[in-house]
Amino acid sequence: MKIGVISFAHMHAFSYTKALLQIDGVELAGIADTDAERGAKYAEYFGTTYYPDYRELLAQGIDGVIVTSENARHKEHTLAAAKAGVHVLCEKPLSTNIADAQEMIEACKASGVLLQTAFPVRYNSTVIRAKQLVDDGALGRILAMKGTNRGRNPGGWFIDPALSGGGAVIDHTVHVADIMRWISGAEVKDVYAEVGHLISEKPIDDCGMLTMEFENGVFATLDCSWSRNKEYPTWGDVTLEIIGSQGTISVNATSQKLHVYTDESGYRHHAWGDSMDAELIRDFISAISSGAAEASVTGEDGLHALAVAVAAYRSSEQGRTVTMQELD
Amino acid sequence: MIRVLVIGAGTMGRAHASAYAVMPGVKLVGIADIQADKASGLAAKWSTRAFPSFEEAVQELGLAGIDVIDICLPTPLHKEYVVKSADAGKHVICEKPIARSAEDAAFMIRYCREKGVRLFVGHVLRFFPEYVKAKALLDQGSIGKPAVIRAGRGGGYPIGWNDWYSDFSASGGVTLDAMIHDFDYLRWCFGEVERVYAKGLHGRHQAQLDYALVTLRFRSGVIAHVEGTWAHEGFSMHFEIAGTKGVIDYDSRTDTPIVYKSRRRSETVPGVIVPESPLAQSPYYRELAHFMSCIQDGSDPLVTAEDALEALRIALAALSSMSSGQPVLIDADSGALVGAHSYRGVMS
Questions:
Q1: Do B170 and B243 fall within a single domain?
Q2: Interchain contact, A321 vs B215, CB within 8 Å
Q3: Which pairs count as long-range contacts for B187-191, CB under 8 Å and 24+ apart, including other chains?
Q4: Residues 200-239 in A contacting B (C-alpha not used; CB under 8 Å)
Q5: Which part of the chain is the GFO/IDH/MocA-like oxidoreductase domain (chain A) (predicted)?
Q6: Which residues from A are below 8 Å from B205, CB to CB?
Q7: What is each CA distance from B278 to A145, B258, B275, B282, in whole angstroms?
Q8: CA of A101, closest CA in chain B: separation in Å?
Q9: In angstroms, what separates the C-alpha of A166 from chain B's closest C-alpha?
Q10: pTM to 2 decimals?
Q11: What are the residue boundaries of the structural domains of chain A, listed by start?
């Protein structure tokens, strides 16, 4: 099976590509990147061909492509892949706006190719265990959830809204919004958000606090702020507290870690848990090879999570609760 | 010597009595509780007198034998007993929350002022050294400008006298009873709150569970998230302050200096785990000693009754947001009550 990668703009491209190479029968067909220096560098590192034009990569008879370009370019790359009959794994957020995401979903459907949204947290062993406990009825009925996905401000194109679609809210809402939907089995009904530019020097939303109400009456909050400073011992976190009628679950998806103290870099966490990126890539490959009708995490999943971020921005602008229906 | 009468021999009454009992310059003259056995048990422990009611205590001790009345009763009784204490011409210490409604709280503040007695409200979090230290670091600029704050507290569902916590109209649930600590602390650190958005279990779930998530937006732009839970096992509290140059965090679940685990089977639960944070002076002692010194020298307390009213208004705004599903603005002209008075020290 031949897989290509479009753009190393998003740093996940590195771990995804590494994961690809570990799978038997998968050939890395090439890396396309508009940034020639970056593209050539990673093509050399991974021992593959560099393509300045992604269309050339798509013309190599490849089976699937990983789209890890800037958020605003996901649509162009996904539509081109669909047209070439190539299955797509698209980095989150699926797009910068709902209309583009819908177009991507429809194009992939029309061409009969898979569109998978890259939500690695779905493949985190701890999160999977939490989902299992909930499905086994350990919590009774879910009543409320409290999540965080905090991190460092990544800088670069992430803080250029023309390329990213926004800051912390669009970057960090989607992971946990997706997990909350997955675990509760319910869709978000409405969203309220306090959004702020409080930390970075450059103007970008770097602080966000969302409150969501789900269709089944569950409520939840999500802190998506880029609130980790550079000396914080780790990049950030994914946590989820689930309150049920019969118990509670506290998930800290990155707490499988060592506490390391060195004179060179101070105090740092070093993770030792399973690689969720590797599981994500394996799942995409197996969906292609098994001829699955749908990816296990679909474009629609990506759209639902993106819509929560879009609603959060609108709520913050208008100072009120925004229903998901209003976004249609 | 300041002579203190404690009303209520529940959890707070016990905490306050144990502080007064060892406080220099203070005499615990009695403990009143309508549950006479509770009053006498606690009184015996601290070698003071027990009374079956407020009235009997005042009558027996005589007005001249009491300087301060400390009200450690359920929230719905605060107003009645603050009024009684003020009528007796005694300074009042009242447990938090000051009242269930802003009207009652404002009335109590006005009433005490008119009667010429002082009113202190037990927002003890301002005397917990971990919270005090965090504010000091913040004020020193250690983490730059504050941006996103997370705080919270809770544990199991509280069981009080007559199960009064379950009566939402009396207790206001976890939001008004417990989270008000965080609201006061956050207001102390970050100034006035502009708007509040909140969700809670009240009205959604009938069992003895409460859980609330409240977002505060301060006038400064700071965003704070507060969690209140009566849906977990074992009390804990936590905060995290993220600023432009760093993060301060604390969690009583992980920052625990001593934990006792018994292998002995008690009548109730086997293997009880009891975490503690031992201090030479408990936060309650620090708080009450501070109030005593304010009474002695007439100085303003670190936390005023007006602050207690403002914390209550935040909690009420949260409850109102839970009902409406929309953000609730805290109006800016609520400062009318603040700072319009001064007291002379009566003990000098």
A1: yes
A2: no
A3: B187/B307, B187/B310, B187/B311, B187/B314, B188/B126, B188/B135, B188/B303, B188/B307, B189/B134, B189/B135, B189/B138, B189/B146, B189/B149, B189/B241, B190/B146, B190/B149, B190/B218, B190/B220, B190/B222, B190/B224, B191/B218, B191/B219, B191/B220
A4: 206-207, 209, 211, 213, 217, 219-221, 223, 225, 227-229, 231-232
A5: 128-249
A6: 143, 245
A7: 33, 8, 10, 8
A8: 29
A9: 18
A10: 0.95
A11: 2-113, 122-276+306-327
In this structure, the answer to whether residues B38 and B133 fall within a common structural domain is: no
- Per-residue pLDDT tens over the stretch B171-210: 999 999 999 999 999 999 999 999 999 999 998 988 889 9
pLDDT tens-digit readout, A285-313: 999 999 999 999 999 999 999 999 999 99
Q: Residue B46 is part of a domain; what is its CATH number?
A: 3.40.50.720
**Is the CB of residue A186 less than 8 Å away from at least one CB of chain B?**
no
Contact between chains at A220 and B213 (C-beta distance less than 8 A): yes
**Are B115 and B226 part of one and the same domain?**
no
Does residue B190 share a domain with residue B70? no
**Does B242 contact A243 at a Cβ distance shorter than 8 Å?**
no
**Angle, in degrees to the nearest 10, between helices A12-21 and A36-46:** 30
Q: What is the CATH number of the domain that holds B217?
A: 3.30.360.10
Domain count, chain B: 2
Tell whether A199 lies on the interface with B, counting CB pairs under 8 A.
yes
**Residues B190 and B270 occupy one common structural domain:** yes
Same domain, B204 and B93: no
Q: How far is B326 from chain A (nearest CA, A)?
A: 6
Tokens of A31: 């890396």
Nearest CA in chain B to A319: B327
Q: How far is B68 from A204, CA to CA, in rounded Å? A: 54
- Give the best residue of B225, B226, B238, B239 to mutate against chain A (max A CB count within 10 A): B225
Are A199 and B221 within 8 A, CB to CB? no
d(CA B192, CA B181): 15
Cβ burial, residue B223 (10 Å; 0-12/13-18/19+): buried
CATH code that applies to domain A2-113: 3.40.50.720
Minimal Cα–Cα distance from A311 to chain B, Å?
14
Architecture of the domain whose range is A122-276+306-327: 2-Layer Sandwich (3.30)
Q: Give residue B56's domain range.
A: 2-123+284-303
Closest CA of chain B from A259, distance in Å: 14
CA distances, A195 to each of A35, A312, B36, B191 (Å): 32, 8, 53, 19
Give pLDDT tens digits along chain A (328 positions).
999 999 999 999 999 999 999 999 999 999 999 999 999 999 999 999 999 999 999 999 999 999 999 999 999 999 999 999 999 999 999 999 999 999 999 999 999 999 999 999 999 999 999 999 999 999 999 999 999 999 999 999 999 999 999 999 999 999 999 999 999 999 999 999 999 999 999 999 999 999 999 999 999 999 999 999 999 999 999 999 999 999 999 999 999 999 999 999 999 999 999 999 999 999 999 999 999 999 999 999 999 999 999 999 999 999 999 999 999 7
Q: Is residue A245 within 8 angstroms of chain B, CB to CB? A: yes
* Residues A223, B148: C-beta atoms closer than 8 Å: yes
Q: Min CA distance, A229 vs chain B (Å)?
A: 5
Residue B67, pLDDT > 80, answer yes
Contact B147, B243 (CB under 8 A): yes
Which residue of A lies nearest to B155 if distances are taken between CA atoms?
Answer: A248
Same domain, B81 and B55: yes
Average predicted confidence (pLDDT) for chain B: 93
Residue B347 lies in a domain: no
Contact check, Cβ <8 Å, B213/A243? no
ipTM of the complex: 0.95
- Asked if the Cβ–Cβ distance from B209 to A143 is below 8 Å, we say yes
Q: Is A143 on the interface with B (CB under 8 A)?
A: yes
Is B204 a member of any domain?
A: yes
